[in-house]
Design brief:
Blueprint (H helix, E strand, L loop, with lengths): L2 H16 L7 H11 L8 H5 L1 H28 L4 H4 L19 H16 L4 H17 L5 H32 L20
């Protein structure tokens, strides 16, 4: 057996063990996968409406759109069939097969792009957003619509894009501050005998 065959066999074995187990968690993972499929982005609308958070949120949305575009491109190039369509023993749990290609997982990529961006901007939220991203990603194996390797690669792609977008956000803010005429510490120092306040 080749290394690739071994990896594929392990992929299928983990998927079969994860599929629909535990059964009581089915409603939870159905809801989580629904939110992670893009409907969760509706929660960003209030932040887009507020001037104070609009620019940052717009960059987050751009990161999610870029993630979706990259995932779609890779899926078209790889063309991997979903496990629920390829394996007789892995019918989808509760939901119908989404169709299309399997590798990588768009749910995993999008949720981890969101988590990486938010964690970079607001480190205090790092644990909850990454926990939720992991649940979204795992829901795809639980429901048998993705292989474990699909969600792993999707998570890596999404995390990379989220981190790049967050780093870009910081650089754009710094450039914006310099263009807006922010005074240097030396220029804000009070003149001798003066108060340092504008006339």
């Amino acid at each position: 057996m080749s290394l690739l065959d071994g990896i594929l066999a392990a992929d299928e074995a983990v998927l079969r063990a994860a599929r629909g187990s535990p059964a009581w968690a089915t409603p939870l993972f159905v809801v989580i996968t629904f939110i992670g499929g893009g409907w969760g982005m509706l929660a960003l609308v209030p932040f887009l409406a507020r001037e104070a958070t609009r620019a940052t949120t717009a960059r987050l949305v751009a990161a999610l759109v870029a993630t979706s575009a990259l995932v779609s491109t890779v899926k078209a190039l790889v063309g991997r069939v979903r496990p629920c369509d390829a394996l007789a023993a892995c019918e989808p749990v509760f939901i119908a097969s989404p169709g299309g290609h399997s590798f990588p997982s768009g749910h995993a990529a999008g949720s981890f792009a969101f988590a990486a961006f938010v964690a970079s901007v607001r480190p205090a939220f790092a644990v909850p957003v990454f926990v939720f991203a992991a649940l979204v990603a795992w829901s795809r194996c639980f429901l048998a619509v993705h292989y474990p390797s699909d969600i792993l690669v999707g998570a890596l792609l999404g995390t990379s894009i989220g981190l790049v977008a967050a780093r870009l956000r910081g650089r754009l803010d710094l450039k914006g501050s310099s263009r807006s005429g922010t005074r240097s510490p030396a220029s804000s120092r009070p003149a001798p005998g003066g108060t340092g306040t504008p006339d």
